Structures are given as structure tokens and as C-alpha cells.
User: Which sequence fits this backbone?
């Protein structure tokens, strides 16, 4: 037994706020034991006894004690104060039985003495050694703790210790010896992250080796490293091996094929980061290393039983009891050839149950599976604890979220037991996400998502489980059936309540291309998925719309005053008590984050101390007020309560109380605002951690963008963000009933959001059906509900009728594939018809090619044919479009109203054509159209065409014309329709609608009653036909606004800094697309810079926005700026994106000007620079009294106006550049003739070229001096960029290296009076880099005072007698000229 008496410590330093609460820990061979914490004490006295059981093993001579003193924190990590290491060599050799250590000096992480003295004593009690120093062993080889004892040997813990020898332990040599450390990195398991590329770095005795880079979360390395050292054995055994992915372990003599538990050394509370299998061996001169024995089946290796315990971790036997009750909503996974055959012969197929599910559970290398239930999408396993099989979905239970460390586990101080708890969960449903649910026989391109790699794009079912944990004990059986009593208890956790969801789509913009018509689908779970027939039909999709060009760069959907609406009803468990708590904590965290951002901005802007104190006090007062007033709801009487709910409630209450007390103490004691930022940021991080809810059984809301029937982009929204609550206003979701901006993303996007598929503005509301009437207070506009169908006709022999329809029905849905009849439409329950069927054209599907353009070019192709060698004659279709479809002749094409022809018809010469504009080809059956074209005529060419163009320009907006009969025309049966009939049209259609109204008139919430189908399905119709009707026979809901408001937007784009280089010369040619709702503009291109200054105002006139201006003022749409690199060849490359909220001015008399602020530019989730931007949005009134137009720079470019642009001053920059050192090769060639180029604020200066860097690496001249206009305010100052250019043969001048420096620390005021302050400013540049020679200057010399120059003018003035102008010329005794 090793007994450690922890006595006291003296001289512990004070914290920034108050005194620390010191706690001491002693670590011996990986086992850690702690004392109690002493509250608010600088000289603590513990006098506690900590005992370590040696378990019969002798005390090793290399043993030592680690003493660590920390500042105890109730929540979060204890803060490190100091540590010390005590060798137990004298105890091991038997020189003494007691080892006192008085006034030990503690050191910090950098091994620097911190002035704290620590006192303790160590005693070795009897029983550890036999008589006469005989060793007692429990089996295994000496020095090889990794080799397990064999059965029947003394390694059996039930047997008594056996004396093995009478020799003493050999003392370690006291002189350096040669050793070899062999480290074999075998494989890793369960490494966290998505699409990771792990690499292992091994550091031993100052030497570092690294493995090759692998891919995936379970990489296989199998690499051996050798470290040769010469050192004292005692020092070697005191050293550490550092393996970074990251774990630190004490050196042993041999560890064979052991698993290491990886953790983050900087954040021990983050939990395990995976496992790494290694072998470690130390051999001396002449030693034979042990051999490795590889197991046959290491894939099923039990990690826990073969785990090497890291330092500071004590393992205890724990039994995890996981009850798996049932699953539901499993998607189809089987091809079901038999089912297809049944359908062919008229039988019935049930595709929704084509899945044979079983559940696989893995933890720490152990894996168990439930039984398989065949052909069941909602299986019930009722089992206890738990190929090429198809994976339906994967989810993870993070132990850090369902457990908390406390006294029950680690024997912590009193008062923490009530916070700590063992892992627990449920009974509760776990949601599965992965690839889209639609089954095809083709390989799934998103299959990786089902393995949990990346964000799942669709709901794929859920599993009802319960987890409990027992200390000690061992399970008799790994798999067992759950008792019927437990099944009955779990029934109450499956009670469902009805939820209602409404989503109003206000805008859809920033589309990259027009393409096919677009619709949006909203689903929660299976409810609303239009391609899944397992749920009741719902109005879960918007109407199809075609994209329109915004006149600059993007496309948008022209919804105008009629916004599409989506309605869903679904059934889930009532977990409002959990989500209310989450929303309240998130509300507090969001308010704190907003105040913290304001404080950081003020610090960056160098605001006055009074202003900083005011902002800081507001933050602290809001924090105390929020934590005191907004309490999480009590759990008494709540349904679906679990043991984890109770424990999390205690944890949250304790954490909130702790943060509140810290805030009060900070308010009383703080003296430095900037010093408190760390604590405030820590509070924010804690609040966000407390807001994580593991038992969230309501699935996320998923929005899909569909082009035709193809899923293109998605967005996942947590249900709590839009959930309505009756508990309090703060318990409602952040976006409940509020319009939010959503940037959708592509599934498994390799570019990680470099391009946005679409930007949505959506207003969503989710609540219990019992609270539907509360929706009335959130709704805007007037809701209208219609049934709709399309009448189709074809033209045959010049007459319109139904006889020529191919694959279409007389009356159908919008796709034309589903047959509909007026008499079969029936309104849903509680709804009734209002009026008869009427014709109402769908304007969103009329795709005029010139929509959104101010300039447009009409095109038509003239076609001619011939026999081989014959004369060219007009083709059967003399005029066509680019696809070869019939088109009007140039003479028949009229200029539309509101447009003006710019030129006559001409042929396009900017193509591969001959001098007359013809291109030639050979027709190929079956469509008799050439597949390729050439500019030179050959004898075998039998077809040629000429592209005719005529430009036109828009001169006025045209009013909407009378729809007439409401027909839409098309030359093909497809999606491209137009209003005016053309001679080439062969198909037409028109939309019929019939309005519905609620029978009880309960307001906007009546839309939640729209459940079920509108069309009665014929009893003889097959299930397949019934499934096809889903989505075609649901009502269309829209929200109409009576009035629109006109706005005027100005975006001030001043500059950017630290952008990423896109060109080979390490520069970029940046410009920005600036988008706001359905309008966009583009800045000018700034060439060859990473710190461009645009100084440009973009003016958007007459932006039409529907909705209450007050709502826009409180929640305005963001201005989105997308940066691109302009390339002369190829497509422009994206450089990143940033968003800026505009300042909304409903009253033009408001005098507050927007302030330019730095907004981060991100690309692929990483920082890509910053932009200095501001924007203001004006509501235009009848007077239309807008601010003055900013000054122009050129014909169309406006500058940033005074009052908003930074105030600049002429600034001189002086750089002392001595030379270059340690230049590496660039493009396989050495750097021989470099020069230095300096860029700042658009000005560039360059040194002379070093002719031969090997002979003389210094510049010919050291001083670079230039003047530039820079902002007075430091927060606006652009950086200075240093680039090294190598002058190579044939005029090549590649940039071989560059760096960016901030100018703020080098500023110097030339008129400063305080010599000491001036001195510190002058030498800041020299002191910035450690190791540079600092020139000490005399205090008496003015820093910026230059010696007066003596030149030819001085001699002239001295000669003519103007002595006041000649300076010190005469004093120096120089000669003068004789003036005649």
C-alpha cells in the first residue's frame, strides 16, 4: 500500500476575479485520486490521506508521483495552476519507508516556476515486499506488463501471491546507455468526423515520425517506427510517448497490440475521440525484442478488454443495458422481383414492407444484433441489449450528452453528486437519417449517408430504445427478450399527439440556372413526402414554377403577390417540456451572443472606455436578468418523463445558478473589460452545451427542391426552431412564425456550399393541433385554397382537339400523367365549395425567354438540304430553333410590346462557320438531325444551317394582358409554354380552378383541416394508380397580399482584405455579385490583389416587397455578396460568400447613417477573408424624397458617400528590408535573383533585384518608402502584403512567397510629444519578430526627427545671403560661391 498525505500549499496566485478554489490530485501509474476543494483560499491546508493499492506488485524504481493543483470549477474543466513530479526511487530501493516532500516548487505548462510551494509525505506500508527483499509477482514476465498471465498461473486473482525468487530488484545504471524504442502503429477505430484523412504523429524523446495519410474513420496503417536514443535509464523511463490523434501514455517496457483510448489533451470533457492499436517495445543493447502474435480474427477485436489504460483514467466494470423495443417508418430496401411479377399479372404488390430489418449496436469494439423481422417496415424486436446487408440508417448516442461526471463515479467533493449521473436514455425514439427514401434498383449515390458519414438528407425511420447503466456486476446473457412488464411500461412513451405545420414561401432567388420547372416539398418524418404512399395525402408541395432571369446574374421564381403555402399534419410524442427548455436556453444564449458581438465590435473600433463600460454593463445586466427571469419548466405532471429528463433538469438548474452567481460576482469585481471576455465566452459555450437535447424524438423538418421529379437540393431544420409553445414567449422557437432565410445545399456536396442551389425566405409555424387557433396571430396575408386540374388539347390538321394527345389525358394534373375528372373532386371534411370551376392561367409556368432581361437577342436557324453533290434547297422545316424544332421565320417574328429592335437580322459569325455563316453536317437516323457540325463544305454533306440573330432592347414595362381563354401554347409536350400562339405550336393547355372555403370560418388556422385526397379513387383502380394520385389530387394553398411596398436599397461595398489567392501568381482578380431577394448587381473587377478597394455604391431602385414594413424592419432579408475571381480563360472561380443585414429606414427623415463593418467571408466552411460593407433599405413614400445620389466615378459607378466612407489621411510607410534568408526551391528550381514587392492600399513599391543570393543575400538598398491614403480609424486599415519575386530567364517572374501583416501595431504619430511613447512605436516593427537585432536609440533623440539635409540648394542660399534657408551649411564650414 502506498499512502500519500497531502498537507498544504502556499502562495497560490489570485485569479482575475476573486480567489481560486484549489484542489489537489495525485496520479500514480495512471490512477488519479483527488482531495476536497478548499473554497476561496490562497494558502490551502488539506491534510488528506490518499491510498494507492499496489496489488501485491513491488514498487518499481522508475515509479513517480504526479502532483497537480487546479482551480476547482463546478461546471466545465478545472483550471490548471501548477504541477510537480516526485521520484519514488528511494522508497523502491528500501532506503526509507517514508518520503517527506516539503516546499516543493510547482511549475506551469511551460515548466516555469510559478512561486507556489507544496508540502506532502509518502509512506510505503507493509505487505509490498517479502522477507529479505524477496519479490512477489502475480505472473507474466518482468518488464512486459502487456503479456497476460496464462490460466492456472499466479496471474489468477483468486490465488495467493507466490514468492518467485530471493534476488533483489536490479538497480538501474547511472550512466547513459543506448536504447531503441520501436513503435508500431497498426490501426484506428471509431475516429470522429466526416470525410477525414487521419495521420498519426509519434513523438519520443524529442524525435517525431508520422504515418502516411489514410482515409476514413477506421484507418489501417501498419507502420513501424524506430527511435534510437542514448540516455540514462531512469530518464528514459520517466519520459513519455506522445501519439497525436491524441493520447499520452507512460513508457512501459513492452506493450503488444494494445488499444489506446484517444482524447483531446486540451479538453478532457470532450470525451473519447476513438481508438488506436499500437505495439511499443524498448530494447537495450543485446536485448531480444518480444514477438507479436496476431489474432486470426482481429476485426471482431474486443477493444475494452484489450485497452491500455491512459494516464489519469481508472476503468470500472460497467454493464450497459440497452432495450430495443420497436422501429417504424423503415423505407423499402429490396428489389422484390416477385412483387413486380404479381403486378404484371394483376396481383397486388405491397412495396412499403419490402424490408427485412434488424438492429446492430456497437460500442467500444463490441457488436450485437437483434433478430431479423422479415417484410415489415414497422418491426417489434422487444429484445434486450443488443454483412452484405444494406444499411437503412445510422445514428450515434454521445455518452457526453447522456451522462455527466460526478461524485458517484469519481468520488468527487460533496455537492457534485447531485449533478453527476451514469449514462441513461429513454424509453425514447431515435431518428435515423440518410439518403432519400425512394427505392431504385440502381446503386444509391448517397449510400455513405446511411453509415452516418455526412449529414443525412432524408428521414429513414426511427427506433424506440431504452438505455440504463449498472456499476460493477456482469450480464449473464448478451441477448434476451424484454419482459412483458417492461413492454407495458414503454407503451406510455408511445402516446401520440397531432401536430400542425404551415410553411409560407415568400421568395426563392439566387438560382444558378433556369432548367426545368421547380417545386418545393416540405416533410417531417414520412408526413409530406410526396413519393411515399404510406401517409395520408397532404398539401405538402408548392406549385411548379419556372425560373426568371433577374437581369444580372441569378434567376428567381416569380411568385409576386401570390405566395405558395404548404400544410402538414403529423403525429408525434409530446416532448414540449424538453424543447421548451432548449428554446429558453437558446434564447438566453442568442441574446448573450448578440451583446458579445457588439462588445467585440466596440473593442475593435477602439471605442472609449466609457462606451465600452456601457456596452459591457448592458451585457452583464441582460445576462443576470435573463438567467433570473427565464427558468426552464418544471417536470411535475409532464408526460413521457424519463430518468434522463430528471438528471438533465438538475444539471441545467445547477449550471444556470452557477453562471448567474459568476455574472453577479463579475459585475462587482471586474476592473478590465477586455479581461472578462474569456469568462463571457465560456458562459456562452456552456449555455450552448446545455441546450443540446439527446431525447428529441420529433424528426427534423426537411425541405426539398425538385426539378420535375428529380430531387436537387435540401435543407434540414430542427423542429424546436419553429415550434410554438404556450409556456412562454421565450419557449417558442427562434423562427416560429417568423420569416427566415435558408440557403439550401446539394446532397453530399463535395464543394461544401461553394455554390448555392437556391436562397429561400420561408415563414414556418409548428404546433400542437390543440393550439391551431394561435396560428391566426402569426399569419400574414389572405389564405386561398383551390382545387385545380389542366385541360389539354393537341393540333391535328390545323384543328385543336383531344384526338392527337399522346401520353396525355383530356383533363389531368400539371404533369399531364394523372387522369382527373371534375365530378370526382370532393372537398375535404369541414370544407365546402365556393363558386364553380373557372379558367385561371398559371403565370409561374409561362416561360418567356426574355423575362427579366433588359437586352435580348432573338435567334432562329435557317436550314437547307440537298442530295449528295446537288444544289442546296430549303429543308422541310426551313426555320427551327437550336434543337431542330419548328420555329417562325424571321419575317413572322414581331417585336414584343415594350421592346425596340436594335438592328436588322444578321448571321452569327462568332462560330465555326464559313464566310456566309453556314455550318455543315450529315443527318443521322432516326431523327435525321446532324450530331456534329463543320465550317468547311464537303461533298458528303447533305444538311446545312445558319444562325440568324436580331437584338432588341427593353424600353418600357408592359402591363399584364387579359388572359383571354387562358390557353398556354407549346411546340412540344413538355414544360416550355408561352402565352401567344405561334404557327409552330402543336400542344396547348389551360388551368381550371375551383375555390374552397372552411365551413366553420375559424380564420387562417382552417387550412390545417386540409387532410386527405380531393379526388375519389375508383374502386377498380389499382394501388399503383392510387399512389400516383398523391400530390396530384391535393389542394393548392396560397397566401395573397393585397398591397406591395416599394423599397430603395443602397449597398456600400468599400473593400476586402485577406482574400484567398486563385491565380498562379498568388493574386486574384476579385469582384462581387451582390444579391437582395430577386435583384442583383455586380461590382467592378479589381485586378491582381488580395486586398481590393472597390469604393462602390450599388443602387437598387424600386424593389417590390410584399408584407408589413414593420415586419421587414424587425427581420430584414440579408444582402448576400458572392466573391468571384475574374479569369480571362474559362469560368470565373468562386472565392467565398458573406452576408450583411441592411439598416431599414421606414422614415426617410432618419439621420442615422449605416456604419461600415467587417463581415467574414467563408468558403467551404472556412474563413476566406473579410469584407467592409454596409447597406441601407429605404421605404419609398409618396414624396419619394431619397438621399442625394453619391458622387460618380465614371459613367455608371457610384462611390461610397461621405459620412459612410472612412476618413482617410496621407500616410507615409517606411520599410527597412535588409535581405532574404533560407529561401526554399520553387517549382523545382532554386531562388537566385529575388526582389521584394510591398503592397498596401493599392500602392506598390519594389526593391532592387538581388543579383546572386548565394554571394550576397542582402538587398542593394534597405529603405522602401511610399505614401498612400489610409483610413484614420485603425479598424478600417488594410493590411500590408509582402511578396518575394524571383527574376528568372525568359522574363519569368514567379512569386515564390508572400505574407500579410497588420499595420495597426506599426503606426507611429510623427507629432507625438511623449518621447517614450514615440520610441515604443518606432521600434514596434523591430520587436515584432523574436531573434531580430533591436537598435537601441538614445532617449534624447526625437524618433521621427531627421537630420537636416545639406545639398546644392543649401550652398546656393548660403552664397546669396539667405542664411535662414541654408540650414547648417555655414556651421559645417563649407565653401560658398561667388555671386556676380
Assistant:
Amino acid at each position: 500500500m502506498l499512502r500519500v498525505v497531502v498537507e498544504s500549499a502556499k502562495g497560490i496566485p489570485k485569479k482575475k476575479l476573486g480567489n481560486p478554489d484549489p484542489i489537489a490530485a495525485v496520479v500514480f501509474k495512471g490512477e488519479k485520486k483527488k482531495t476536497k476543494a478548499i473554497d476561496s483560499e490562497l494558502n490551502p491546508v488539506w491534510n488528506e490521506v490518499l491510498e494507492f493499492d499496489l496489488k501485491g506488485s513491488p514498487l518499481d524504481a522508475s515509479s513517480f508521483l504526479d502532483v497537480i493543483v487546479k482551480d476547482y470549477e463546478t461546471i466545465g474543466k478545472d483550471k490548471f495552476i501548477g504541477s510537480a513530479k516526485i521520484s519514488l526511487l528511494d522508497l523502491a530501493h528500501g532506503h526509507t519507508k517514508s518520503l517527506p516532500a516539503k516546499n516543493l516548487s510547482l511549475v506551469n505548462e511551460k515548466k516555469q516556476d510559478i512561486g507556489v510551494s507544496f508540502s506532502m509525505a509518502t509512506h510505503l506500508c507493509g505487505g509490498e515486499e517479502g522477507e529479505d527483499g524477496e519479490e512477489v509477482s502475480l505472473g507474466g514476465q518482468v518488464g512486459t506488463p502487456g503479456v497476460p498471465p496464462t490460466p492456472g498461473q499466479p496471474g489468477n486473482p483468486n490465488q495467493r501471491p507466490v514468492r518467485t525468487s530471493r534476488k533483489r530488484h536490479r538497480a538501474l545504471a547511472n550512466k547513459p546507455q543506448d536504447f531503441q524504442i520501436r513503435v508500431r502503429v497498426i490501426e484506428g477505430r471509431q475516429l470522429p468526423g466526416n470525410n477525414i484523412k487521419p495521420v498519426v504523429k509519434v513523438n519520443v524523446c524529442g524525435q517525431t515520425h508520422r504515418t502516411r495519410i489514410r482515409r476514413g474513420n477506421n484507418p489501417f496503417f501498419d507502420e513501424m517506427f524506430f527511435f534510437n536514443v542514448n540516455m540514462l535509464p531512469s530518464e528514459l523511463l520517466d519520459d513519455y510517448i506522445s501519439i497525436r490523434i491524441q493520447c499520452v501514455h507512460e513508457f512501459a517496457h513492452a506493450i503488444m497490440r494494445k488499444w489506446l483510448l484517444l482524447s483531446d489533451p486540451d479538453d478532457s470533457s470532450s470525451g473519447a475521440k476513438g481508438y488506436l492499436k499500437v505495439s511499443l517495445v524498448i530494447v537495450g543493447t543485446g536485448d531480444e525484442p518480444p514477438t507479436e502474435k496476431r489474432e486470426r480474427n482481429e476485426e471482431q477485436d474486443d477493444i475494452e478488454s484489450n485497452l491500455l489504460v491512459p494516464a489519469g483514467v481508472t476503468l470500472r466494470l460497467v454493464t450497459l443495458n440497452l432495450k430495443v423495443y420497436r422501429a417504424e417508418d423503415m423505407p423499402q430496401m429490396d428489389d422484390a422481383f416477385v412483387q413486380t411479377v404479381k403486378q404484371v399479372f394483376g396481383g397486388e404488390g405491397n412495396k412499403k414492407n419490402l424490408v427485412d430489418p434488424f438492429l446492430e449496436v456497437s460500442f467500444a469494439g463490441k457488436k450485437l444484433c437483434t433478430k431479423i423481422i422479415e417484410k415489415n417496415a414497422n418491426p417489434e424486436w422487444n429484445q434486450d441489449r443488443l454483412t452484405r446487408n444494406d444499411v437503412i440508417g445510422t445514428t450515434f448516442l454521445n455518452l457526453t450528452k447522456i451522462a455527466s461526471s460526478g461524485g458517484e463515479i469519481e468520488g468527487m467533493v460533496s455537492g457534485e453528486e447531485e449533478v453527476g449521473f451514469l449514462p441513461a436514455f429513454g424509453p425514447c425514439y431515435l431518428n435515423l437519417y440518410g439518403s432519400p427514401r425512394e427505392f431504385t434498383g440502381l446503386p444509391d449515390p448517397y449510400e455513405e449517408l446511411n453509415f452516418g458519414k455526412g449529414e443525412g438528407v432524408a428521414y429513414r425511420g426511427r427506433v424506440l430504445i431504452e438505455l440504463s447503466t449498472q456499476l460493477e456486476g456482469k450480464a449473464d446473457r448478451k441477448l434476451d427478450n424484454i419482459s412483458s412488464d417492461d413492454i407495458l411500461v414503454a407503451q406510455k412513451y408511445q402516446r401520440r399527439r397531432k401536430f400542425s405545420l404551415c410553411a409560407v414561401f415568400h421568395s426563392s432567388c439566387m438560382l444558378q440556372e433556369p432548367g426545368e420547372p421547380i417545386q418545393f416539398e416540405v416533410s417531417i418524418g414520412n408526413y409530406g413526402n410526396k413519393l411515399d404512399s404510406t401517409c395520408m395525402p397532404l398539401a405538402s408541395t408548392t406549385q411548379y414554377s419556372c425560373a426568371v432571369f433577374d437581369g444580372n446574374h441569378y434567376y428567381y421564381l416569380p411568385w409576386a403577390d401570390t405566395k405558395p403555402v404548404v400544410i402538414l399534419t403529423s403525429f408525434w410524442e409530446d416532448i414540449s417540456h424538453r424543447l421548451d427548455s432548449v428554446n429558453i436556453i437558446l434564447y438566453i444564449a442568442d441574446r448573450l451572443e448578440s451583446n458579445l458581438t457588439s462588445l467585440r465590435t466596440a473593442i475593435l473600433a477602439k471605442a472609449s472606455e466609457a462606451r465600452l463600460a456601457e456596452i459591457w454593463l448592458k451585457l452583464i445586466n441582460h445576462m443576470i436578468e435573463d438567467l433570473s427571469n427565464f427558468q426552464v419548466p418544471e417536470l411535475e405532471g409532464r408526460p413521457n418523463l424519463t430518468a434522463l429528463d430528471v438528471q438533465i433538469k438538475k444539471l441545467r438548474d445547477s449550471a444556470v445558478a452557477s453562471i448567474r452567481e459568476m455574472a453577479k460576482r463579475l459585475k462587482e469585481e471586474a476592473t478590465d473589460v477586455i479581461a472578462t471576455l474569456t469568462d463571457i465566452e465560456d458562459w456562452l459555450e456552456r449555455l450552448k452545451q446545455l441546450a443540446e437535447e439527446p431525447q428529441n424524438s420529433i424528426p427534423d423538418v426537411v425541405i426539398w427542391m425538385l426539378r420535375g421529379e428529380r430531387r436537387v437540393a435540401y435543407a434540414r431544420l430542427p423542429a424546436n426552431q419553429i415550434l410554438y409553445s404556450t409556456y412562454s414567449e421565450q419557449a417558442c422557437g427562434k423562427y416560429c412564425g417568423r420569416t427566415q432565410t435558408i440557403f439550401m445545399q446539394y446532397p453530399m456536396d463535395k464543394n461544401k456550399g461553394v455554390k448555392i442551389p437556391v436562397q429561400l425566405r420561408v415563414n414556418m409555424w409548428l404546433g400542437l393541433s390543440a393550439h391551431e387557433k394561435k396560428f391566426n396571430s402569426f399569419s400574414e396575408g389572405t389564405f386561398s385554397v383551390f382545387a385545380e386540374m389542366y385541360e389539354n388539347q393537341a393540333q391535328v390538321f390545323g384543328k385543336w382537339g383531344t384526338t392527337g394527345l399522346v401520353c396525355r389525358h383530356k383533363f389531368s394534373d400539371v404533369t399531364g400523367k394523372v387522369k382527373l375528372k371534375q365530378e370526382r373532386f370532393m372537398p375535404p371534411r369541414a370544407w365546402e365549395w365556393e363558386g364553380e370551376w373557372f379558367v385561371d392561367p398559371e403565370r409561374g409556368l409561362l416561360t418567356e425567354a426574355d423575362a427579366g432581361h433588359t437586352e435580348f437577342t432573338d435567334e432562329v436557324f435557317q436550314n437547307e438540304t440537298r442530295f449528295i453533290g446537288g444544289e442546296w434547297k430549303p429543308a422541310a422545316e426551313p426555320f427551327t430553333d437550336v434543337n431542330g424544332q419548328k420555329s417562325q421565320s424571321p419575317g413572322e417574328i414581331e417585336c414584343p410590346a415594350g421592346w425596340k429592335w436594335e438592328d436588322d437580322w444578321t448571321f452569327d459569325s462568332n462560330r465555326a462557320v464559313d464566310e456566309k455563316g453556314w455550318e455543315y453536317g450529315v443527318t443521322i437516323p432516326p431523327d435525321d438531325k446532324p450530331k456534329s457540325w463543320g465550317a468547311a463544305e464537303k461533298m458528303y454533306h447533305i444538311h446545312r444551317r445558319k444562325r440568324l440573330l436580331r437584338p432588341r432592347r427593353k424600353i418600357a414595362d408592359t402591363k399584364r394582358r387579359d388572359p383571354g381563354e387562358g390557353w398556354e401554347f407549346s411546340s412540344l409536350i413538355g414544360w416550355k409554354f408561352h402565352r401567344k400562339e405561334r404557327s409552330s405550336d402543336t400542344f396547348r393547355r389551360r388551368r381550371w380552378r375551383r375555390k374552397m372555403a372552411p365551413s366553420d370560418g375559424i380564420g387562417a388556422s382552417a387550412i390545417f383541416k386540409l387532410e386527405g385526397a380531393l379526388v375519389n379513387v375508383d374502386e377498380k383502380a389499382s394501388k399503383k394508380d392510387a399512389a400516383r394520385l398523391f400530390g396530384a389530387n391535393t389542394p393548392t394553398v396560397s397566401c395573397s397580399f393585397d398591397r406591395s411596398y416599394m423599397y430603395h436599397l443602397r449597398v456600400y461595398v468599400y473593400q476586402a482584405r485577406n482574400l484567398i489567392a486563385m491565380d498562379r501568381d498568388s493574386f486574384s482578380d476579385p469582384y462581387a455579385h451582390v444579391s437582395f431577394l430577386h435583384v442583383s448587381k455586380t461590382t467592378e473587377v479589381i485586378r491582381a490583389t488580395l486586398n481590393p478597394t472597390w469604393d462602390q455604391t450599388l443602387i437598387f431602385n424600386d424593389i417590390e416587397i410584399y408584407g408589413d414594413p414593420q415586419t421587414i424592419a424587425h427581420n430584414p432579408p440579408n444582402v448576400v455578396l458572392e466573391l468571384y475571381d475574374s479569369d480571362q480563360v474559362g469560368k470565373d472561380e468562386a472565392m467565398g460568400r458573406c452576408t450583411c443585414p441592411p439598416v431599414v429606414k421606414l422614415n426617410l427623415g432618419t439621420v442615422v447613417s449605416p456604419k461600415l463593418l467587417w463581415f467574414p467571408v467563408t468558403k467551404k466552411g472556412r474563413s476566406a477573408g473579410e469584407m467592409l460593407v454596409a447597406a441601407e433599405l429605404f421605404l419609398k413614400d409618396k414624396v419619394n424624397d431619397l438621399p442625394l445620389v453619391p458622387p460618380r466615378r465614371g459613367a455608371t459607378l457610384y462611390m461610397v458617400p461621405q459620412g459612410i466612407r472612412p476618413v482617410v489621411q496621407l500616410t507615409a510607410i517606411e520599410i527597412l528590408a535588409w535581405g532574404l534568408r533560407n529561401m526554399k526551391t520553387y517549382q523545382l528550381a532554386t531562388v537566385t535573383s529575388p526582389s521584394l514587392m510591398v503592397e498596401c492600399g493599392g500602392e506598390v513599391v519594389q526593391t532592387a533585384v538581388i543579383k546572386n543570393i548565394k554571394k550576397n543575400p542582402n538587398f542593394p538598398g534597405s529603405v522602401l518608402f511610399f505614401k498612400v491614403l489610409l483610413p484614420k480609424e485603425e479598424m478600417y486599415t488594410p493590411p500590408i502584403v509582402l511578396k518575394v519575386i524571383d527574376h528568372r530567364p525568359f522574363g519569368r517572374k514567379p512569386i515564390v512567397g508572400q505574407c500579410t501583416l497588420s499595420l495597426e501595431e506599426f503606426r507611429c504619430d510623427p507629432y507625438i510629444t511623449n518621447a517614450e511613447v514615440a520610441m515604443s512605436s518606432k521600434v514596434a516593427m523591430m520587436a515584432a519578430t523574436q531573434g531580430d537585432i533591436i537598435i537601441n536609440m538614445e532617449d534624447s533623440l526625437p524618433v521621427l526627427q531627421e537630420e537636416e539635409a545639406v545639398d546644392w540648394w543649401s550652398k546656393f542660399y548660403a552664397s546669396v545671403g539667405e542664411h535662414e534657408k541654408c540650414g547648417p551649411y555655414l556651421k559645417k564650414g563649407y565653401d560658398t560661391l561667388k555671386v556676380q
